UniProtKB/TrEMBL annotation:
<keyword id="KW-0802">TPR repeat</keyword>
<dbReference type="Pfam" id="PF13181">
    <property type="entry name" value="TPR_8"/>
</dbReference>
<keyword id="KW-0732">Signal</keyword>
<dbReference type="InterPro" id="IPR051685">
    <property type="entry name" value="Ycf3/AcsC/BcsC/TPR_MFPF"/>
</dbReference>
<dbReference type="Pfam" id="PF00515">
    <property type="entry name" value="TPR_1"/>
</dbReference>
<feature type="repeat" description="TPR">
    <location>
        <begin position="42"/>
        <end position="75"/>
    </location>
</feature>
<dbReference type="InterPro" id="IPR011990">
    <property type="entry name" value="TPR-like_helical_dom_sf"/>
</dbReference>
<protein>
    <submittedName>
        <fullName>TPR repeat-containing protein 03</fullName>
    </submittedName>
</protein>
<feature type="repeat" description="TPR">
    <location>
        <begin position="76"/>
        <end position="109"/>
    </location>
</feature>
<feature type="signal peptide">
    <location>
        <begin position="1"/>
        <end position="23"/>
    </location>
</feature>
<dbReference type="InterPro" id="IPR019734">
    <property type="entry name" value="TPR_rpt"/>
</dbReference>
<keyword id="KW-0677">Repeat</keyword>
Amino acid sequence: MKFVKYITAVLLLTLLNTTIASKRNNNQPVQQKLIRDKAMLAEKHFYVGISFLKLNKYQEAIENFDSAIKYKANYSEAYYNKGICLDKLGQYQEAIENYNLAIKYNPNDAEAYYNKGICLLEL
């Protein structure tokens, strides 16, 4: 539980720092700043998800991968790692769907093909 609070605090401080830094640089068009901020948010959520995955906290990891995908719809690594979590939870069909999306956005991801095959064997 302490780790969850720690990760949340780190994420909030990072977002606050990003907001302050973006307010200082008003030379860029608003659209470019929003795109950059969304990409950074996606990356932050992705790495928080990876931390939860390493702790075997699959549901929390899935929530963060979903947030990363919300900010970057073609985030193949987020789909791949969400697939791993779903696989670990025994939700093989959903895992396959996420591996398919990972493959769609990164057709050269051999691990996604492999894990998809393993899930198909489990069905």
